[in-house]
């Protein structure tokens, strides 16, 4: 459990985060438009950058300028682009990282490395070099090296970005499994992944919190604001230009277009909101 109270971060004259208060637990999805401050917030939680004001409690302990986290290795942070030791087999790379973390007994290291490789489903790839692995596998190595330190909080910055569909599904299942015993924070632009994984969601925009709550509560924000048009191909351009189009599906004759609108849409049918609609409602409603 992480409690963030009135956290603010400035870089030069820019307010990157302003009075952010969040209660993070379970598998927590952090979403928001580009530049919302998600990465900055995650880096503060991982003690990779400082905050200017505010208070962070992790499992009841106050974090003072990052000291608590570093001393206890409580947090594991996986950045967007993870890569270590490109030309070394992954088993050796992990062994080396375990040694740097203070595990000096070779036999114990072998057991621990074997355990984390198994946990992230990389058995059979131990002797491959990092550059020989796919993007998804590299991310799994990134998680494996975090698990060596047994952190109780894992932070992933856009973990599913750039993965193909199969790898994304595998990766999502792994994150869900890891979340059974740990607090996990995930940022993503892929709302579908957030929907699949998260038990709680925070929406940030321009450094401010616009929403915090359950996926159902976020979805409810869009109730009464999602409309479906059935249109011909020649109407599609104007529709995309003038309306907030959420989704376009090609049908036998023409298209079904989902539109987000808080006003009544003449000629369209009011339909059930999805999570992405709730997100759009939060972002549209907040001044941020
Ligand atoms: N070192 C820096 N110097 C100046 N501005 C910065 C610095 N780091 C971040 N920013 C600014 O802070 C804001 C928030 O950036 P951040 O990377 O935290 O957003 P984000 O929500 O993770 O964005 P994205 O979804 O695009 O990854 C952006 O406007 C960015 O330009």
TrEMBL record:
Record has Transport as a keyword: yes
Keywords attached to this entry: ATP-binding, Nucleotide-binding, Plasmid, Transport
Keyword match Cytoplasm: no
GO molecular function: ATP binding; ATP hydrolysis activity
Pfam family, one: ABC_tran
Residue span, ABC transporter domain: 2-231
PANTHER family named in the record: ABC TRANSPORTER, ATP-BINDING PROTEIN
Family of the protein in this entry: Belongs to the ABC transporter superfamily.
Name used for this protein in its record: ATP-binding cassette domain-containing protein
Organism: Planococcus glaciei
């Amino acid at each position: 459990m992480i409690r963030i109270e009135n956290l603010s971060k400035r870089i030069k004259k820019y307010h990157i985060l302003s009075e952010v208060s969040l209660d993070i637990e379970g598998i927590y999805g952090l979403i928001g438009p580009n530049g919302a401050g998600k990465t900055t917030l995650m880096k503060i939680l991982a003690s990779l950058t400082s905050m200017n004001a505010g208070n962070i409690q992790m499992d009841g302990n106050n974090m003072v300028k990052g000291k608590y986290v570093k001393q206890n290795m409580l947090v594991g942070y996986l950045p967007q682009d993870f890569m270590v030791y490109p030309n070394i087999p992954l088993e050796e790379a992990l062994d080396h990282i375990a040694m740097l973390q203070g595990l000096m007994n070779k036999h114990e290291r072998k057991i621990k490395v074997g355990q984390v490789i198994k946990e992230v489903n990389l058995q059979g790839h131990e002797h491959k070099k990092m550059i020989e692995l796919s993007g998804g596998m590299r991310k799994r190595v990134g998680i494996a090296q975090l698990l060596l330190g047994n952190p109780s909080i894992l932070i992933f910055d856009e973990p599913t970005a750039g993965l193909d569909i199969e790898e994304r599904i595998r990766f999502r299942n792994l994150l869900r499994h890891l979340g059974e015993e740990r607090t996990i924070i995930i940022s993503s632009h892929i709302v579908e992944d957030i929907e699949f994984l998260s038990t709680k969601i925070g929406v940030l925009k321009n450094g401010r919190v616009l929403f915090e709550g359950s996926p159902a509560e976020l979805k409810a924000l869009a109730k009464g604001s999602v409309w479906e048009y059935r249109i011909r191909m020649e109407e599609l351009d104007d529709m995309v230009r003038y309306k907030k189009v959420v989704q376009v599906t090609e049908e036998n004759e023409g298209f079904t277009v989902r539109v987000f609108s808080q006003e009544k849409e003449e000629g369209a049918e009011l339909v059930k909101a999805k999570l992405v609609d709730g997100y759009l409602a939060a972002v549209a409603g907040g001044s941020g």
